User: Which sequence fits this backbone?
């Protein structure tokens, strides 16, 4: 599923950001099912604003298997998304696109991360150079998806980060690990200015 996308025009400076556990609190073991469940993590709005001010196009990619598995509805997801976007707008944060996988955990779709379907969708709408593009996530499956698509990957220790950090191996690891989105953004600003 895609939303909020406009056809590509020229090569853009894009950063892919996972949602739950990076932007908002991940209810470990449960889904964000209602608007009331959606709570921004500390420092996120400021960090995303800095990305915008540094010329980045922010693209959100998120697994929402609770839809396919019948835990909440598309309407509830839309309400959550609208709420998130309202807060972004109030803070001057433009979002270039949002791509959700709505399939259940066992649907074997091609878009649930670590698969790359969401990134492939984005690449149809937005022109970016994968080898110069970063993905920020809090799960192993995030950086696997990024690597599978040839992106650079940053891992944050919010959300599932601390749990998943233990599963990182020398053979399969992100480019960098940061305490939260704030520090990842500082790194990006230095690397890509
Ligand atoms: Mg996450
Ligand atoms: Zn899917």
Assistant:
């Amino acid at each position: 599923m895609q939303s909020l996308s406009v056809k590509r025009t020229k090569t853009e400076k894009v950063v892919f950001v996972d949602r739950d556990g990076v932007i908002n609190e991940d209810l470990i073991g449960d889904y964000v099912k209602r608007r009331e469940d959606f709570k921004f993590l500390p420092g996120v709005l400021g960090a995303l604003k800095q990305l915008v001010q540094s010329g980045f196009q922010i693209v959100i990619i998120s697994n929402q298997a609770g839809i396919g598995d019948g835990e909440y509805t598309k309407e509830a997801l839309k309400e959550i998304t609208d709420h998130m976007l309202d807060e972004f707008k109030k803070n001057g944060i433009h979002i270039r696109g949002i791509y959700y996988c709505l399939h259940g955990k066992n649907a074997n779709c091609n878009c649930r991360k670590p698969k790359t379907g969401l990134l492939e969708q984005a690449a149809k709408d937005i022109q970016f150079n994968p080898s110069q593009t970063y993905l920020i996530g809090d799960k192993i499956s995030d950086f696997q998806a990024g690597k599978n698509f040839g992106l650079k990957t940053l891992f944050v220790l919010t959300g599932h980060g601390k749990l998943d950090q233990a599963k990182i191996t020398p053979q399969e690891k992100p480019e960098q690990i940061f305490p939260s989105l704030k520090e990842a953004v500082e790194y990006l600003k230095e690397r890509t200015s």
